[in-house]
DNA sequence: CATGAATGAGTTTTCATTCAT
DNA sequence: TATGAATGAAAACTCATTCAT
């Protein structure tokens, strides 16, 4: 890892929470220099412009999340165990998630929607990726005879995202974890009632 | 209605979509003067500051939405008809909702969360209001012997919001109405399977 | 007194202290409307512009002061009694003078000096007027054989102003009435040692 | 001296006369950029805000004055020579003082009095400093057996300031140096009649 | 590579003033 | 006369970005 790459990574990590809390428009270059202790010239030496920082921070935040989920899974688990593990991740990580400003996919999706097309594209990719992970588990489950063959994996994968993101939104806004937890229970119910053979 | 009140209302209406699309921080006073044809002095003659415009625009957008839903309902409907009517509203209004920048509650909730406490409070109130409307329908349904008595109205009311907002989020981001429509179907399923006697 | 004249007077009186404290540049038309309860249109209906208000307020403040001094004097007094009466006025009025923002001549002289020629002229006239009053007393004293004939009345009259204004300046700035009181004692000493036969 | 410090100093020097003439409220950032040839961004890069510029300019003006007086004095002088030297400074510098907008202590004291507490504090300090210098000379004179032991040094020190500032005020306002010169003569008379043994 | 110092266009807000009603 | 509602210019300040060193 070159020095340049280290500095880039340092900037990204130091500002990840900032961007997630204040948004991309709301985070100024002065905020970035304050958070990193570096100068503006240095930021521009390592990134083309603020948009590039924003994009890399989003990718970092998104990957971090994805990795945390992946860390809970392993080869030996049944399909059901994997799905429940994912659901449980959102339950146990709620507190820290909350403190770091909520889900970066949700936050970025909303802010980027009508104003930052380059970011919106990345968010869409992240959601697709997330959905694909769930789809893979389900399809694997089908071939392992654990999941009902006839179900539309993609439909369920996205429905789980809907419930999780909607739950985070409401819990964050109302300052009440019950809404997210209810949504997670709903997902578990769906898994057991509609997916598991 | 005094001229001042008319101008206030004019400013609010002319900038409602703007704020919903570009966000509160992202909408500048110059944007507001462009959209209204008025001068900065005139904006400040009618509002204390930009925050007040933001707040009033949110309240306007929120009430507009609420009214549109309410317009679909009437006294003669059964509880089930009312609930399905609400769900259907989000189906039929999807296109226009989409073009106006998505759900103002969702957008404002995310933007205001860590940065604009005065707006966050209003969003929370709006969500509560919305939930209460659904709760009232359900409680009414119980006393009319149409809804299972033992169910927790509040829990279901918020779960519907979770599904609708999560659905809008995903559909808007992925540019694919299927995600919202799936979520709406899920709500209908829940109504018929768990709530209606 | 016509209604117009009454309103003019009302505006002047309500804003006299304001102008003396905040200065002419520092007092905005909004300050004036707040202090009077009138509208901007009404201010402009009664005065040509802010400068005219400023000028009239200065004249009002200046005359008020002059009148207060004059009220302490009467025909029967000796020259010495009159001079000591004037000096004593600044001693006894110190507190209220202080609370109203200090001497309007001093304040206006400084502010108007390099920026508001139309006001500077008025302040100079006021000082001349004040000096002339003292000169008259002294000249009268000469013809009454109470004051040394050879003294330069004008020189002493202005020296008294120097001591009074310098004293007010220092006492106000240091928040310590001793400086003014010392200056007043100096005047008394000069009267008895150099002027009175 | 870093470039930043040089620019700070440059800004202070280029605007010192401006502030003294137009006052702190009356000097706008545009005035500052015009006087320096720099941009607003550059001013804010070197000062926290306009208040900080104002304060530094006052301190500069105040120190400049103090230094000019100090330059006239040296170790070999008797106490009387020193006091007369100070008095004479105000006589010989009258013209340039006048052209630069008058005494910065006087100007700032009046403007800051009811509106800018952070500046008022600095002016008070400057007056104290000035008085202390005179007190030191007098106390030294006492121990050298040149000054009457029983006199209250502080009282006389402040009385000299009263006469000088009152004199400047009147001379500036009436556009007539005689008032200041009279006051200076009065000081000299006091020195010889009441202080010198 | 990073820094320090600058830029110019932008921000929100306030100003004195006007004028139809 | 007084009001309510506007205007346009100017205020203080911040922004993302650049570039010589």
Automatic annotation (TrEMBL), chains A, B, C, D:
Pfam families: TetR_C_13 (PF16925), TetR_N (PF00440). InterPro entries: Homeodomain-like_sf, HTH_TetR, Tet_transcr_reg_TetR-rel_C_sf, TetR_C. GO terms for molecular function: DNA binding. Keywords: DNA-binding, Transcription, Transcription regulation. Residues 28-47 bind DNA. Residues 5-65 form the HTH tetR-type domain. This is TetR family transcriptional regulator. It comes from Epilithonimonas xixisoli.
């Amino acid at each position: 890892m070159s020095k340049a790459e280290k500095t880039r990574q340092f900037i990204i990590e130091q500002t990840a929470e900032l961007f997630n809390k204040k948004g991309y428009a709301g985070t100024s270059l002065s905020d970035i220099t304050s958070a990193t202790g570096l100068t503006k010239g240095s930021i521009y030496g390592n990134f083309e412009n603020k948009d590039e920082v924003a994009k890399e921070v989003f990718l970092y935040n998104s990957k971090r999340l994805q990795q945390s989920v992946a860390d809970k899974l392993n080869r030996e688990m049944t399909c059901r165990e994997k799905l429940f593990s994912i659901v449980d991740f959102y339950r146990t990580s709620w507190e820290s998630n909350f403190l770091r400003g909520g889900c970066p996919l949700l936050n970025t999706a909303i802010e980027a929607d009508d104003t930052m097309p380059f970011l919106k594209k990345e968010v869409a990719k992240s959601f697709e990726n997330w959905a694909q992970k769930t789809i893979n588990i389900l399809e694997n489950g089908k071939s392992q005879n654990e999941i009902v063959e006839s179900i539309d994996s993609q439909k369920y994968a996205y429905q789980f995202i809907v419930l999780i993101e909607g739950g985070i939104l409401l819990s964050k806004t109302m300052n009440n974890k019950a809404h997210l937890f209810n949504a997670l229970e709903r997902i578990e119910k769906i898994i057991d009632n509609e997916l598991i053979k």
